[in-house]
Design brief:
Blueprint: H1 13-24, H2 31-45, H3 63-77, H4 83-96, H5 101-104, H6 121-133, H7 146-164, E1 199-201, E2 207-209, H8 213-225, H9 233-244, H10 259-273, E3 277-279, E4 285-287, H11 288-297, H12 318-332, H13 337-340
Helix pairs in contact: 1-2, 1-3, 1-12, 3-4, 3-6, 6-8, 8-9, 8-10, 10-12, 11-12
Length: about 350
């Protein structure tokens, strides 16, 4: 009902892509729903640039974010006419990764809003999801070029290095800001040297960065996409942090800020983690799908939308957060193709 005549939601390619993905992932579509998705993706396609990026180059400053979110929509819908776009957008994202280990330092392997801007975990997790969902394009039988698979493997290797730099785990991250106290150990932060949840003073008087919910799940999802299994110490550490902070009532460490982003990311992360029952730190075994769904359903507005009274990160926009909520509900209901590439 909020789609515009030109096929857009909010005149924004990334928001439009999220809405299209939410509709397309809902199961068998009606003719009207198919039309809405096709008109939406055709709108997004008008922002395709010569280098494969998909973004509004006139007014926006985040080509990587917009390209990654849009690529996820195109690969989920999987229209025949968009196959060249998939490869082009994937190539742009791969080219945007920070690749100079000596020059980039703690940013090596990450991806930011644009090629020249510092990487952060939020942008990196979107980019890695898009690369994960299109990884088959660099493998046989989609390609017979061995260099493509090598390029893909190197990108995942670099990504694992960046993920070390945003995890509060001193065994792999030797930065001075790393928090190793039980409350923060194993969790993730926004970017090397910055947490949106603020700092905590260590026993040595150093301001360490606080772990928080949305980045914890973003880190877990990204580690799994980057081919680390459950027995890897980094995965174990973030899972333990999530166990201690397991809730769908708020974004741990941020309260209501970014709540719907948090729920959307949590659903994807728990789906790729692969356990229907999640055990909290107190031993409680919870059906996360039911709990997450219940928390979202009780927050739905009478007109069918969701909206966050805390408008940080655009969450006062119902088109955006309704897309987050619907996608989270779909994943919780078992339609996980958008997260797991099944």
């Amino acid at each position: 009902g909020r789609q515009q005549e030109n096929g857009a939601w909010m005149e924004h390619p990334a928001v439009t892509s999220l809405a299209c993905t939410a509709i397309a992932n809902s199961g068998e579509l009606s003719e009207a729903e198919e039309d809405a998705v096709n008109r939406g993706l055709d709108y997004v396609k008008t922002f395709l640039q010569d280098d494969g990026s998909i973004w509004n180059a006139e007014i926006e400053q985040y080509p990587n974010y917009s390209t990654a979110v849009s690529l996820i929509a195109f690969v989920v819908v999987d229209r025949p006419q968009d196959q060249a776009l998939l490869r082009a957008a994937r190539g742009f994202i791969l080219g945007s990764q920070f690749k100079d280990e000596a020059a980039d330092g703690v940013f090596y392997g990450g991806i930011g809003y644009g090629k020249q801007l510092r990487p952060d975990l939020s942008n990196t997790q979107w980019a890695l999801e898009a690369l994960y969902l299109t990884d088959h394009l660099d493998r046989e039988p989609a390609t017979t070029d061995p260099a493509a698979a090598e390029r893909s493997e190197l990108a995942w290797e670099r990504a694992r290095e960046f993920l070390k730099q945003v995890q509060n785990l001193p065994e792999v991250n030797d930065q001075v800001w790393v928090a190793s106290d039980p409350e923060n150990r194993g969790g993730f932060v926004y970017m090397p040297g910055e947490s949106k949840a603020g700092t905590v003073e260590t026993e040595d008087g150093v301001d360490a960065l606080r772990s928080y919910g949305s980045m914890g799940y973003a880190g877990l999802k990204s580690l799994i996409y980057a081919r680390l299994d459950r027995d890897d110490p980094r995965v174990k550490a973030v899972v333990e942090w999530i166990r201690k902070n397991y809730t769908f009532d708020e974004n741990p460490g941020m309260k209501d800020a970014g709540y719907y982003y948090y729920m959307h990311t949590a659903a994807k992360a728990l789906a790729v983690f692969g356990a229907d029952v999640f055990t909290a730190a107190d031993g409680t075994q919870d059906d996360w799908r039911q709990s997450l769904s219940g928390a979202l359903i009780k927050r739905q507005q009478e007109d069918g939308s969701w909206v966050n009274e805390n408008g940080r990160w655009w969450e006062s926009a119902p088109e955006l957060v309704t897309s987050y909520a619907v996608l989270a509900l779909e994943i919780a209901a078992g339609n996980e193709a958008v997260a797991t590439a099944k």
